[in-house]
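fyi for ur records
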Amino acid sequence: MQPDMVRLPSSMRRCKKGSYDQDVMSGNKQIAWIWLEASVMNLVRRLSVCTSVVITSALTSVALASAAVTIPFQINPAPYGNPNGSFDAPAVRCVAVVGELPGTVTITGGKEDRWGCLLSSEVRWLNLSTGASGSARLSDGLNGVPAGAIVQTGTGQVAVAVMSVAGSIITPGVASFYVP
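which gave:
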């Protein structure tokens, strides 16, 4: 074999046995370069397909994980100490919204435009996965802003209790959910 001849490994040979070797040995460098170029193009094509599949998979999982989830729960008033409630004191429906921001939960009303939760209530929470705990206060609902509290709980299984601070007898609303 002459020093200026190119010899590719057998894994890059695509034609019937012997023809590539004959081309290289006969000094036909143009055919050898065509084979090399075709092999490189196949490699580039395969790598680009694999890369696009990986990127698409990663972006799809991010999009699915970022969808907000609403978890409803209710607070049952017990007027005059009656644990069964009353027709004049209906249940208060609140929701916990998770997935809007990582490690946070928004406690707000379950009705249209996030109205319906107790105004100026206390929110106590416990992250069952990390042991972190805390409290927050729902806003007062003034100036057209619905009652709500954004709580930084961290990622994990979280238990939340919403309690009235008005002094009336109200059974706390309790919910447990996973915060991404």
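The chain has two domains: 10-64, 66-179. thats all i got for now
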